[in-house]
Structure formats: structure tokens, C-alpha cells
Predict the 3D structure of the following.
Amino acid sequence: MEGNGSLIGEIGLYALILALVFSLVQGTLPMVGTHYGVGAWIAVARPAALGQFIFITLAFSMLMLGYIVSDFSIENVALNSHTDKPMLYKISGVWGNHEGSLILWIFILALFGLSVALFGSNLPPTLRARVLAVQGLISFGFLLFTITTSNPFTLLNPPPLQGLGLNPLLQDPGLAFHPPFLYLGYVGFSMAFSFAIAALIEGRVEPAWARWVRPWTLAAWCSLTVGIALGSWWAYYELGWGGWWFWDPVENASFMPWLAGTALLHSAIVVEKRDALKSWTVLLAILTFSLSLLGAFLVRSGVLTSVHAFATDPQRGVFILALLVIVIGGSLVLYAWRAPALKSGGYFSPLSREGGLILNNLLLITACATVLIGTLYPLFLDVITGGESKVSVGPPYFTNTFIPIMLPLVVAVAIGPMLSWKRADLYGALSRLRLALAVALLVVIIGWYTIENGSFLSLCGLSLAAWLFVGALVDLGERLKIGRVGLGAVWRRVIAQPRATYGMTAAHMGLALTIFGIVASTSWETERLQVMRPGQTADIAGYALLFVGVKDVGGPNYNSVRATFEVSREGAYIATLQPEVRTFTDPPMQTTEAAIRPTITADLYAVVGDPDGQGGWATRIYHKPFVHWIWFGAAVMAGGGLISLSDKRLRVGAPGRRKFNRRRAKVTAA
């Protein structure tokens, strides 16, 4: 096995080195060629991107092969895998560690570069070459970091008989898919960054540029939405504390680029439709990817202690910090130099759809700034005081700063699509939203009289969710002219409507569902913490949970203490819940496995803890109204993004001449 391990490791390392060479060629020759007009060097961009992708794919495949065959002559496999581990977690172990996750990051970078090389034939040749060159330089930085400080193919001689195993907290389906989606989001924003840098170098940003940027940004945004939702869902059912978001610094590291990316999506619309906000949109593209890189620094530098973070040595942190300074600092210097030449061609009134999108951007970026300050302030204070002052910024700070910014944003999201371009009538827009306003007020009134322990702020949160949900439907109804034309004309408008319209409606409705789930689950959650003995019953939210007892059970690579609760309501049996405490040996660790009975309206959530030594066991039982609507709403948002992404108007290429469509013209005239 040692010989095979050496072969796998050597092939993987040589593939990384060759990928490094190709990335350097991709990042330099096309950039120089575009500057001096050397066509042969410009043409190097596509084959260099292909070569880099081939070799990074080979390296990634070799590392995965090492995990699949449990090749412990590779140190990375020995430290993060075990022969008894299920195959799913052997594979996910590839990116469940620092070195392997970097290979995944670079693989996705190369994949995006390859996509531009293969499917960007309609892009102007110089722009495509510059975009691929910037992608190549980003890959070069990460490949150099990987080879010099984080080699995943370091060999062990002699190899151990068994591996140490993956962190048990990461041995979960949610965490198997969570990092790839996050990285698709993080790295996807590199495409917007590359297009922004290429545009700054060329000194030209046009509506067509926004059309090229939007698909990549939208794809990254959808992936990041799914990744954040999976991480939140995993924290909810795996960590056993009953929450789904704790404002952990590493959680924030993924949330900040999502906020900035959302602003970028909306800002790019203004560039495409009105040839305005060019400079601001380019800056947003730079900031969004910069926040993704900042997240990488926070996770890998060792400055944070988190269940999500990879604790690494300071040398790696210094390298990533230097990379961060070069990429962010260099791009901002280039922006300061070239941005004044980007003149907007569209003029508009503050009260217009453009103005609404600007308000959207300002609120999103302000919210992102509050999260950034709360995340970095303890680190800055620690550096300034030399570690003598330790300050923790927790949920109260974020609740008191983030939520007040988001409230007007939610109000504005429903109004914005009702405004016309260039100049709008606010009174007319609000009058068309009277149904949404009526439903929002009705929710407050009904909730006030029917919901026990309902604070006024909680009811306002529900009304905002209703306002946004109904407002999205009203906007769609206005576009289809429901109630103003016949059913046949409505149906023709349904068919002729761009998919991006349905995608926007779905995304806004998904946000409303998520807000509803957040407000309901946090405002009306019920909790019972007690020590229970077999035969005792705990009552919660009309349910009776009979504690039957505990027993020892075995798993594929762990031993477990499993408790059993029989759930009944008004004497009728409902379900059986079996929470566990699992004890892993490789590596040694205990994990809590919550038992959850999900329904449309609420979750019953049971956790068992330690024995009290007198026959009793610590138990925690929660009743969480509508908590699953949080992730259902996130799925609807991501689905809306995918619907928009399927719109034929969003293509990686220059816009072609539109063919005259008699049916569409007739529908528009109607």
C-alpha cells in the first residue's frame, strides 16, 4: 500500500505543480497580449484555462481516490479518514479539512474559468482574455499557497494501519454538501470580480457587460443561498442546542458576501436597463469577492475558534492575509484610478425604480457593514490590546443593529417593482399595493386577538412577511393584467412573460416565507429543560412526552446512548422520538443527535443529555412553530434564482439582434 500511496501522492503533487504553471501562463500572457495587441498571446487564454482545469481535476481526483481506498500513506487521509467510516463521509472528508477544501476551492475556480473559455465565444476577445487572466492570477495565488504551506499530498513513512477519522461533527449529510455549495458561491463571485477588473482595465462598462456579469452572479448567489441554508439546518438538528443561527463569526463570513451579492444582483439590473450606476456596480463586484476572501482568511488563519473553522498555524494566516492585501488592495487601487472614467448615461429621478434599487443597495451594504464590524471588532481589539482585553460580540448586538436596517428594506422590496423606470408615481404604486397592506393589517389584528404571548413587534414581523408575500403576488398580477383583460389575454401574457419575472416573484416570496419562519419560531418557541426518569411525562404545547428510558446501541463507527419518548396528544399516540448521544473513538468525541418530528406548523425537538447518577437523565424538549419555513423559504429563494438563470436573455455572450415576435408585440400592446 505504501508504494500505491506514494504513486497517488506523487501524481497529485505533480498535477498541482503543473496546474500552477498553467495558471501563471493564463494570468500573464493574455494580459500582456491584450495590452500590446499580440493576438497569439491573447489566444493562449483558452488552452491555458483548459490545461489548468485538467491538472487540478487530476489532483482533486487523486486526493479523492486516496480517501476512497483509505490510503493512509498520505498524511491528509490518515488525519481525516478511517477504514470504518461510511463511504459518504470518506468522500466528504476530502473537503472536511483545510488542505482538501483548498483543492475543492481551486477546482471550482478552474471550473468557472473553463466555462468562460468554452462558452464565452460571443464575448469580445480582449475582454474574455482579461477575464480569464484575472481568474488565472487568483488561481495562481491559491495554488502557490496550497503547494507551499498546505500540501495535501505529504506522505507518511511508515503509514499507520488506521486513520484518525473525520471530526464526528462533520459526519453528517448536511455537512457533506454544505461546503461544496458554499464554495460554489464564494468562488462564483470571483467571476463578477474578474469581469469588473477586466472592465476597469479596458475603461468601459456597458449594459452588455451587466448582462455578462448577471448570470455568474446569480449562479453564485443561488449556490451561496443553498450553502448557508444547509449550514443553518445542520446546526439546528446536529448541535443539539435548538437554534439555527448564532451569529458565529464563520457564519457571518458566509452571510456578508450573500448580502453584498444580493446588492450586486440588483445594481447590475440598473446598469443593464438604464446604463447607470456603472462605477458603483463595479465596486460592488470587487467588494463581494473581497468578502469571500475575507471569509477564507477568517476560517483558515487560526484567528477564530469555531466548530466551522479550520484551526491552522499562523504562517498560513500570514500568507492568506498577504494574498488578501494584494487582491483587495490592488483591485481598489485600480478602481480608484479607472472608475472616474466610467460615466453613466442614464438619468433618473430619486423616486423611480432606479432610486428604489439604490435604496435597496444602501440598506443591504449598511447591514453588511454592521455584520462586518461585529465580526471583526473583537479581533481588532485583541490585536490592539495584545490579548489583554477579550470582548465577545454576540446575538444582542446583531439583533439590535441588523434587524432595524432590514425592516425598511422589506417594506421597500414590495414597493420597488411597482415603480416605473426613470420617474415614478409613489402614490400610484402604493395604491396598487392596497391588497398587500390590507392583508398585513389583518395579520396584526388577528394575531393580536388570537395569539397568546404575542408581542407587538412579533406581530409586526408577521405583517411584514405578509406584506412582502402578497406584494410579490400583486406585482405579478399587475404584469399579467389579471382582472383588467380577459382570461385569454392573461394566458398569453403568462406565456410571454420573461422567466426572470417569475424568478423575481419566487425569490421575494421565499424571503417572505423565511421571515415568517424566523419570527414565528423565535417569538413563540416553548422550551422544557428537566431531569426525567423512565415513566415520567413532560407536557409542552399540548403534547405529552412519556420518557420510556435509554438503551445502548451500536453504529458503524460509534456507540450510542438512545433515549425513547412516546408522544401523545389528548391521550392519542402521535409519534416516537429517539434522540441519541453518540461516542466516537476515532477521533474520540461525543455528539448530540436531536430527535425531531417536523410538521407544517411546528417541530417537536427532543435532546437527551447526561445521566444524573440517580436514574435520571437531563432532557431538553422544544416546540418550535414554523421553524422549517426558514429553510423552505431559502429553497424557494434559490429556486427563484434558478428560474431567472434559465431566462434566455441571460446568456454568457453579447446580446444579439432580437427577432420580431408578433405574438409578444400583440400581448404588449394589450
